[in-house]
Design goal:
This protein folds into 2 domains: 187 residues, Rossmann fold (3-Layer(aba) Sandwich); 100 residues, Homeodomain-like (Arc Repressor Mutant, subunit A, Orthogonal Bundle), CATH 1.10.10. Helix content is 43%, strand content 12%. The protein has 13 helices and 8 strands. The longest helix is centred in the last third of the chain and has 19 residues. The protein is globular.
Length: 323
């Protein structure tokens, strides 16, 4: 249906809980708002929903007013936003999902909402995806299966998504079912969102077609580093796999990042440790081991971040690094 004048209003419910991800809320609402503007119609409307009605805030100190989740939903879509606290009880919404699906709504789970659903179903399948940080946490917590690293995945019943900026790609694709392709393109142009990525596109970190620099050898090296954070490869092993010399690899890293390969690799592993400290209950020693630091992990972490792993966990309890 692409004629706004003859289109019925599409109702969207946005389910939030305390510490929701502002980036994802903005992506959903701004795309819908701009679609209304571009089509000179009110083809989309939206309502914030929560288990507890009233003011709901995010870590960025913005607040919205949410209405209670209805007993009999009338929405065409339900978006469940991610959360800065991956263990927030508000993410456990399987009864809500079933209620909306029973009424014929399309359900979209973003980031932590998707990973909670995956964890509660007990298996990581190729029909579901989540943000790569959450995928790492699922793996560390022993959730079986491999899962998908796509930006979004539709299993035929609901859509799971990596969330964050990929929310723009997803909702731009979804509104194409209700407005013309030209309207979608115009909304994308207003947002300066040059290319709408397909749902099957791989996430930059988790994907296998990573391109960070445009330098093939360097990109392949970074991909190998990312795939081997727990048991780091020696630089000699990396260059052997890449078919280049150590000196050549050092020149590539110096030219693009002004850093040595070892220093870059160490920072990737420390960043992964940061994620595990915030999003899991693994002890500090086990976090170090999971990131390839059998010795001296606390000192290295303190030197890089200016805080010990234990102190950081206390400061950022429940916090996601990009929230």
């Amino acid at each position: 249906m692409t004629d706004p004048a003859n289109s019925k209003t599409v109702h969207v419910d946005i389910l939030v809980s305390e510490d929701f991800v502002l980036t994802e809320m903005t992506a959903v609402v701004e795309v819908l708002r701009l679609a209304n503007r571009v089509t000179a119609s009110n083809i989309f409307d939206w309502t914030y929903r929560s288990r507890i009605p009233g003011q709901v805030s995010c870590r960025a100190q913005a607040s919205i007013t949410a209405d209670l989740i209805p007993d009999r939903p009338a929405a065409d879509y339900l978006f469940v936003l991610g959360n800065s606290n991956a263990d927030h009880p508000g993410l456990s919404v399987q009864p809500v999902i079933k209620s909306y699906m029973w009424q014929g709504a399309r359900v979209v789970l973003l980031a932590e909402a998707a990973s909670r659903y995956i964890a509660e179903t007990g298996e990581q399948g190729k029909g579901h995806t989540t943000h790569w940080e959450n995928r790492a946490v699922l793996n560390e917590r022993g959730t079986p299966g491999q899962g998908s690293y796509a930006l979004a995945a539709d299993d035929g019943r609901l859509i799971t998504s990596a969330g964050m900026a990929a929310t723009y790609d997803l909702i731009l694709s979804l509104i194409g079912r209700h407005v013309s392709a030209a309207a979608v393109t115009t909304v994308s142009d207003i947002l300066l969102h040059e290319n709408i990525r397909a749902m099957s596109s791989l996430q930059p970190f988790g994907g296998k077609e990573l391109s960070v620099t445009g330098n093939r050898a360097l990109d392949q090296c970074i991909e190998l580093m990312q795939a081997n954070l727990d048991e780091p490869l020696r630089i000699s092993e990396l260059v052997g796999l890449l078919g280049i010399s150590e000196r050549s690899l050092e020149r590539h890293f110096k030219a693009h990042f002004n850093i040595t390969p070892n220093a870059y690799y160490r920072e990737l592993r420390l960043n992964h440790a940061n994620t595990l400290l915030i999003n899991t209950r693994m002890c500090v020693r086990d976090v170090g081991l999971a990131c390839g630091f059998p010795n001296g992990f606390s000192s290295l972490f303190h030197r890089h971040f200016g805080v010990t792993p234990t102190a950081w966990r206390k400061q950022g309890d429940g916090m996601r690094s990009f929230s």
